[in-house]
Structures are given as structure tokens and as C-alpha cells.
Design brief:
251 residues, mainly alpha, Tetracycline Repressor, domain 2, 2 domains
Length: 251
């Protein structure tokens, strides 16, 4: 029987080969960053490790900035995947454990997934949140921005799950100034603009607390805590959730 729908075209041989080459280049660049740090990223070294010329590498990434953008995007996506997986694993464990009296808050699970990825990949974490690479500017509203927004959406969802917009708008944030309230109100919807100003303020504070603790640990500033760093982090994130959600009325 004839149909108007045509089957989805499969990638051509050239497209498949290009995709494989791009993956190999990104993997080689990640290994170079892991060994030398993001500031030492060298297209020549990456090309050499793959047995290709720099000119051949430019066929896939026309500039250093293009490669850096792809690396940052992939790192954010991998980090977001790790955060999502941590939440899913925690939820599955809680549902399977019929003896559990209290389940780990999903926001805490997300935060621990974030921390674990950063500890496993400190150089890639530094690529995202360390000193900006000299002479690099991320494309405006490009793939790096989209990747950041994806991860941000996960944390917003887990922090404010179950609350209505009206409840978030009435959150206790101790008198935001009119100028700050107006600024938060006019943020783009795909950033924090979808949140009422009080909720946006709470989210930024929570994010600063979470991210700050991870940065301190990844860069060795809390090594004096020794093997207790994971426990300190979990306690801090649990308190953060209680504080934020305690500021939002459920009435």
C-alpha cells in the first residue's frame, strides 16, 4: 500500500566516517587535557597522537575555538548525564529498599553525581569552571550555552519539584531589593527567567553553595578533611535542601 512517508535516510558512508573521526579527535583531546591540563591544549599534539596532520584535523574542526567548543559541550553533556544517572539510581534504590525510612532527597543525589564526576575528571571540570582559556570566546547562544541550560534544568527540577509557581513566587527571601527583583524577572526564560524572582534567588544561592564546595574539593582546598569529605558534602546538601524548601510555603 503506497504511503506518503519516506523511510528515514541512513547516514552515508562519508558521514559515518566523519562521525568516527570526530569522536576519535575529541577522545584524543580529552586525553591530552587529562595529561596536560586545559591550558596546554594543542591541536598539533592532538593531531600527532592520532597520526594525522594539523591540516587534516582542520578538516573536522576549522579552528582551535571550534574544538574547544565541542570539548566544553561534551563535558557539560557528560556531566549532565552523570547527574541524571545519579538521580535515577538513587530513586531506583529507594523504591527497591522497602526497609528504608528516609529516601535521599533527589537534589542531594544530583549534587553527589555532580561531585563524583568532578572528582573523576578534575581537568575536564577545570575546562568548564577553571580559569577561562586565553583568547577563547564561546559562541553566543551556541552549543555550550544549551548544554549548561540542560544541566541547570535538572537541578531546578529537583530543587523545586512539587511546588507551584505561586508558591515559588511567595518564597521567603528576606526582602529582595526592587532592582534585583526586576533584574531576575527579566532574565531569559531559558535561563532562570522561568522562575519567579524569589525562586531564582534561592536557586542561585543553592548553586553557589553546591558548586563552591565541589570546587574547593577538586582543587585540593578541603584535603584536610580527609576521607570525610563525602559525608561533609552530603550533610551540607541535606541542610541546603531543608533550608530552601523550608522557605517555600506549602499552604
Amino acid at each position: 500500500m503506497p504511503t506518503d512517508q519516506s523511510p528515514t535516510a541512513l547516514p552515508s558512508l562519508r558521514e559515518r566516517r566523519r562521525a568516527v573521526a570526530v569522536r576519535e579527535i575529541l577522545t584524543a583531546a580529552e586525553e591530552h587535557i587529562d595529561a596536560q591540563g586545559p591550558a596546554a591544549l594543542s591541536l598539533r599534539a592532538v593531531a600527532r597522537s592520532l597520526g594525522m596532520t594539523v591540516q587534516a584535523l582542520y578538516h573536522y574542526f576549522p579552528s582551535r575555538d571550534a574544538l574547544v567548543t565541542a570539548l566544553i559541550t561534551k563535558a557539560y553533556d557528560d556531566l549532565a548525564d552523570a547527574v541524571s544517572a545519579a538521580v535515577d539510581t538513587s530513586s531506583a534504590t529507594a523504591s527497591d529498599d522497602t526497609t528504608a525510612t528516609t529516601a535521599l532527597p533527589r537534589l542531594v543525589a544530583a549534587a553527589e553525581g555532580y561531585r563524583a564526576w568532578a572528582i573523576r575528571h578534575p581537568e575536564r571540570f577545570q575546562l568548564l569552571y577553571g580559569a577561562p582559556l586565553r583568547h577563547y570566546e564561546a559562541p553566543v547562544d551556541g552549543p555550550t550555552t544549551q548544554a549548561v541550560q540542560r544541566m541547570s534544568a535538572i537541578f531546578r527540577r529537583e530543587l523545586f519539584a512539587g511546588f507551584t509557581t505561586a508558591q515559588l513566587a511567595a518564597a521567603d527571601t528576606e526582602d529582595l531589593s526592587p532592582s534585583l527583583r526586576a533584574h531576575l524577572q527579566h532574565l531569559p526564560p531559558d535561563a532562570l527567567g522561568a522562575l519567579p524572582p524569589p525562586a531564582a534567588s534561592l536557586f542561585l544561592s543553592a548553586w553557589g553553595h553546591l558548586h563552591g564546595l565541589v570546587v574547593l574539593e577538586v582543587f585540593g582546598h578541603t584535603a584536610f578533611i580527609g576521607t570525610h569529605q563525602a559525608e561533609i558534602f552530603r550533610v551540607a546538601m541535606g541542610n541546603l535542601v531543608k533550608d530552601v524548601r523550608g522557605r517555600i510555603s506549602t499552604e
